[in-house]
Amino acid sequence: MVRALWTAASGMIGQQDSVDTIANNLANVNTTAYKTESNEFKSLLYQTIQTKTTTANGENKPVGAQVGLGVRTASVTSQFVQGTLVDSESDTAFAIDGKGFFAVEGEDGNTYYTRNGNFLFSVGVNNKMTLSNSDGLPVLNTAGKPITIPANYVSSEVVVDSDGQLWYPDDDGTLEEIAGMQIGVFQFQNPSGLEKMGDTLYAETAASGAALNEATNDNLSKSELYQGYLENSNVEVADEMVNLIIAQRAYEMNSKAVQTADTMMQEANELRR
Amino acid sequence: MVKGLYTASTGMINEQRRVDVLTNNMANSATTGFKKEGTTSEAFKDVLAYKIKDTSEPWGAKTLGTMNMGVKIGENYTDYSQGALHETGNTFDLALSGDGFFAVEFTAKGEDGEAGETSVKYTRDGSFTLNADGELVTKDGDYLLDVDGDHIVLDPTQEFSVDRMGNIMQDDENVGQIQITDFEDYDYLEKYGENYFQTVDGAAEQDADAAVYSGYLESSNVQIVQEMVDLITYTRAYETNQKMIQAFDETLSTAVNDVGKV
């Protein structure tokens, strides 16, 4: 009996986790480059409640009667599906079409990765114009160094091609390559293994594998950069609403099981009056 | 008289166990690849009853007929019917349509002596992912096996696709085939938990006819209406047995306290 109570409780907890994840997805439906998450469940261990069991025609079954002990959340997985690209007014907005990530340098000196390409030029170290994200973290180039342009450049005239290379028009209006300033794009063997840091930043972990630099690794299928576009969140509201209904009803169903277990224990107590 | 008390108590215990099994179905109504379980009840063996030491019977012990001492779990069965497939869009979310299981190399965890030992387990839960070495693993890091029983190692920098036969194609080359195993008799499968099944002695493998759908997951096959109706049945049967015990209690009370009262 108590077994049923705990089993149903594990079901309620699992569904609650699921609702938490769905709520976070819905809250981030307009967050640039947000990747939707989903809960996956696994059954808990099984116990044998009766060792000898027989089939309908009286033969012994090879396996005893087993009862499962409930459910647990196995993983909350981010779905790294491409979001739609939307037009942006900003010249320093970038969207990645492909599997790559931008790299930024955090306050702590570590490198973090993001799909959010809503960047701007700000005055950084040594008064140089530095490309940084909206929190002021410098965006890194293919060599892992901040991307800077000379102070006399007009930032709105910087052009970035689909490889991430920065160009600037010379006096005749012909585009000239800004040497060494190519926005770094990195891939991971297992992006689901990245650790989420908030602010749409991800950190490399043992599970994700080391960052693979698209510029130096020829085997990678290259991502393309689009200047003037941002990647929308890939949350599908209709899917989330359906998942919400399922999670809520499953929660309700498990709470009914708790009530039933409670009633049955009460009845057992009433045996002795 | 008192025997009836015990018979009714076996009824209560039996219904309690059936509710335990049913609650697990409800808790796993959203578990990928979960197969619902059910229980049947079975009567205890019939026993012969004799009348003894009754001097009114001239020929010694007289047979009264058979009687039954109660009920227990007959069998615990698993309904292996197909769950609905729902789309996820991830290449390595694989769903099986038809009979068969994925084979997974499971590494025992925990502090007991078996930790680190590996064994093959079977599952219908096809939510796989790549680990840092490019191996195809479950979300808990257990290895998916190919037709030869080896780990599946892929080049993570290339695109992949999985066809209906479980062949993994990468760069127009076949880089491996996922093992799908079926069994002649599912009675020889035991639940391990973690969505895994394991075989017991006597299990015979056979060719699987399941098709692999990449980008889908199989939902659990729990039917809410069925579970709710069963829950009502079980709890009412529990209540009935409880009422029987109370009735026996009252009768006993009358016998003890009231009979022979002056």
Instruction: Let me know the largest β-sheet of chain A.
Output: 5 strands, antiparallel
Average pLDDT of chain A, rounded to a whole number, is 88
Overall geometry of chain B comes to elongated
The structure class of chain A reads alpha+beta
Low-confidence stretches of chain B: none
Helix content of chain B: 10-25%
Point out poorly predicted stretches of chain A. none
Q: What strand order characterises the main sheet of chain A?
A: 11-10-9-6-19
Number of helices of chain A: 2
Count of individual helical segments of chain B: 2
Give the biggest sheet of chain B.
7 strands, antiparallel
**Cα-to-Cα separation, first versus last residue of chain B:** 24 Å
Overall 3D shape of chain A: elongated
> Mean pLDDT of chain B, as a whole number?
87
Helix content of chain A: 10-25%
Q: Secondary structure elements and their pairing?
A:
The complex is a heterodimer of chains A (273) and B (262).
Chain A: H1 2-27, E1 37-43, E2 46-50, E3 65-68, E4 71-78, E5 85-87, E6 93-97, E7 101-105, E8 111-114, E9 117-123, E10 129-133, E11 148-149, E12 159-160, E13 165-169, E14 175-182, E15 185-187, E16 195-198, E17 201-203, E18 212-213, E19 224-227, E20 229-231, H2 237-269
Antiparallel strand pairs in A: 1-4, 2-3, 5-20, 6-9, 6-19, 7-8, 7-15, 9-10, 10-11, 12-13, 13-14, 15-18, 16-17
Helix pairs in contact in A: 1-2
Chain B: H1 2-27, E1 37-43, E2 47-51, E3 62-67, E4 71-78, E5 85-87, E6 94-97, E7 101-107, E8 118-123, E9 128-130, E10 136-138, E11 143-144, E12 160-162, E13 167-170, E14 173-177, E15 180-183, E16 189-193, E17 196-199, E18 205-207, E19 211-214, E20 216-218, H2 224-258
Antiparallel strand pairs in B: 1-4, 2-3, 5-20, 6-19, 7-8, 7-11, 7-15, 8-17, 9-10, 12-13, 13-14, 15-18, 16-17
Helix pairs in contact in B: 1-2
